[in-house]
């Protein structure tokens, strides 16, 4: 069953009601499922009929979450994983083999960078990084053994945008798998599958949860690729807990209204920050000063919940600013109802070498704000007093 509109699918996609006539979907905390007969057990294991066997393979709460995410992203099938990183790793490990090559945008999440540079090479899978702002270099980077292109847009924390329509055509032309980490935008702001992404990966920990409670991830895509991914996941065990699937499916019910307000607050904050003399640069996809503002408007419904800015005075000023915040939380997470502030150079991207940070635009004074759902006046007041105290 599906509906015309995003909000309705996010709310009305539910596990079938039980004999108890509950209105809210219950939590199925069970490791296994019983067979009505030996014959049914045989048929389930032989994949002749569909149904639950064991929670490492499937569970009603996980299936509900995946069915819902597929409707929102416009994909055929998917699996839920224990974390966003499990989704990134499994989407690569299940589809690639020794000797294969990945092209990845240089601006990827810190742990994704570790997978590409330190983990996949152990099994002979190599990569080439290309810059999100130099699209002409992507086609030139394709080798005979290239199998996948992986990227995030907007990127973290540089908030650069890549043209998904162009990339969808490029990957079709060269028969490559296009894998897009859609964590920053969420399906409410952008649906990469529409532009030809074969795989859409998520850290559900961020805006999908939206309240900083659980870790989770998802891999969505076409049936054939998900079949290979499901085989890999079923036997290697990165399954999401049904409890987290239950939390996240309920979170999705409010994703649209939350994203509307996250984006409204973020644009208001970014516009205000641009007027302050203590700040040298503000970046937000829907600010006219963003270098890819037109592209962002074309491919995203709204600008997202993350704003970055550069304090004049660099690292020292940045640290003083963070210590002077009274309300905003100092934490590595993002996509929370609470506004959070991070210093990428010393926190999320500290494992990168200095020149790697430079290459993805992480300067010493860069501050990343994930704008929450508190009243925007209070968010602006806290950030303003912290800027005044740090300069
Ligand atoms: C947080 C994040 C991840 C990793 O997700 P976890 O749920 O923390 O494992 C991957 N990609 C992006 C863009 C992220 O922000």
From TrEMBL:
<dbReference type="InterPro" id="IPR015421">
    <property type="entry name" value="PyrdxlP-dep_Trfase_major"/>
</dbReference>
<keyword id="KW-0486">Methionine biosynthesis</keyword>
<dbReference type="GO" id="GO:0071268">
    <property type="term" value="P:homocysteine biosynthetic process"/>
</dbReference>
<dbReference type="GO" id="GO:0071266">
    <property type="term" value="P:'de novo' L-methionine biosynthetic process"/>
</dbReference>
<dbReference type="GO" id="GO:0016846">
    <property type="term" value="F:carbon-sulfur lyase activity"/>
</dbReference>
<protein>
    <recommendedName>
        <fullName>O-succinylhomoserine sulfhydrylase</fullName>
        <ecNumber>2.5.1.-</ecNumber>
    </recommendedName>
</protein>
<dbReference type="InterPro" id="IPR015424">
    <property type="entry name" value="PyrdxlP-dep_Trfase"/>
</dbReference>
<comment type="subunit">
    <text>Homotetramer.</text>
</comment>
<dbReference type="GO" id="GO:0016765">
    <property type="term" value="F:transferase activity, transferring alkyl or aryl (other than methyl) groups"/>
</dbReference>
<dbReference type="InterPro" id="IPR015422">
    <property type="entry name" value="PyrdxlP-dep_Trfase_small"/>
</dbReference>
<comment type="pathway">
    <text>Amino-acid biosynthesis; L-methionine biosynthesis via de novo pathway; L-homocysteine from O-succinyl-L-homoserine: step 1/1.</text>
</comment>
<keyword id="KW-0663">Pyridoxal phosphate</keyword>
<dbReference type="InterPro" id="IPR000277">
    <property type="entry name" value="Cys/Met-Metab_PyrdxlP-dep_enz"/>
</dbReference>
<dbReference type="Pfam" id="PF01053">
    <property type="entry name" value="Cys_Met_Meta_PP"/>
</dbReference>
<dbReference type="GO" id="GO:0030170">
    <property type="term" value="F:pyridoxal phosphate binding"/>
</dbReference>
<dbReference type="GO" id="GO:0005737">
    <property type="term" value="C:cytoplasm"/>
</dbReference>
<keyword id="KW-0028">Amino-acid biosynthesis</keyword>
<dbReference type="GO" id="GO:0019346">
    <property type="term" value="P:transsulfuration"/>
</dbReference>
<dbReference type="InterPro" id="IPR006234">
    <property type="entry name" value="O-succ-hSer_sulfhydrylase"/>
</dbReference>
<keyword id="KW-0808">Transferase</keyword>
<feature type="modified residue" description="N6-(pyridoxal phosphate)lysine">
    <location>
        <position position="206"/>
    </location>
</feature>
<dbReference type="InterPro" id="IPR054542">
    <property type="entry name" value="Cys_met_metab_PP"/>
</dbReference>
<comment type="similarity">
    <text>Belongs to the trans-sulfuration enzymes family. MetZ subfamily.</text>
</comment>
<comment type="function">
    <text>Catalyzes the formation of L-homocysteine from O-succinyl-L-homoserine (OSHS) and hydrogen sulfide.</text>
</comment>
């Amino acid at each position: 069953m599906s509906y015309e509109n995003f909000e309705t699918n996010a709310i009305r996609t539910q596990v079938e009601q039980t004999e108890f006539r509950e209105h809210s979907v219950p939590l199925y905390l069970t490791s296994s499922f019983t067979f009505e007969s030996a014959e049914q057990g045989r048929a389930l294991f032989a994949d002749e009929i569909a149904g639950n066997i064991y929670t490492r393979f499937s569970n009603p709460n996980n299936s509900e979450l995946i069915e819902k995410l597929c409707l929102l992203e416009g994909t055929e099938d998917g699996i839920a994983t224990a974390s966003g990183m499990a989704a990134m790793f499994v989407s690569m490990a299940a589809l690639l083999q020794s000797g294969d090559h990945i092209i990845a945008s240089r601006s990827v999440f810190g742990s994704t960078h570790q997978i590409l540079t330190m983990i996949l090479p152990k099994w002979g899978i190599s990569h080439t990084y290309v810059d999100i702002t130099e699209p002409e270099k992507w086609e030139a980077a394709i080798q005979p053994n290239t199998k996948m292109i992986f990227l995030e847009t907007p990127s973290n924390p540089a908030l650069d945008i890549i043209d998904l329509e162009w990339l969808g055509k490029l990957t079709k032309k060269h028969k490559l798998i296009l894998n897009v980490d859609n964590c920053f935008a969420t399906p409410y702001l952008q649906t990469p599958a529409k532009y030809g992404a074969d795989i859409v990966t998520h850290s559900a920990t961020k805006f999908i949860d939206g309240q900083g409670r659980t870790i989770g991830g998802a891999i969505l895509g076409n049936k054939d690729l998900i079949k290979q991914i499901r085989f890999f996941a079923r036997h290697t065990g990165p399954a999401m807990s049904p409890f987290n699937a239950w939390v996240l499916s309920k979170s999705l019910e409010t994703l649209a209204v939350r994203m509307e307000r996250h984006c409204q607050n973020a644009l208001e904050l970014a516009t205000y920050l641009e007027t302050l003399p203590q700040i040298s640069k503000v970046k937000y996809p829907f600010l006219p000063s963003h270098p890819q503002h037109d592209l962002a408007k074309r491919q995203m419904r709204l600008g997202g919940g993350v704003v970055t800015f550069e304090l004049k005075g660099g690292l020292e000023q940045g640290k003083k600013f963070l210590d002077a915040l009274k309300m905003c939380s100092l934490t590595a997470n993002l996509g929370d109802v609470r506004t959070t502030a991070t210093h990428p150079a010393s926190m999320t991207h500290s494992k990168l070498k200095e020149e790697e940070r430079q290459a993805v635009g992480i300067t010493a004074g860069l501050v990343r704000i994930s704008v929450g759902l508190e009243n925007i006046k209070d968010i602006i007041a806290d950030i303003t007093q912290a800027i005044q105290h740090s300069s």
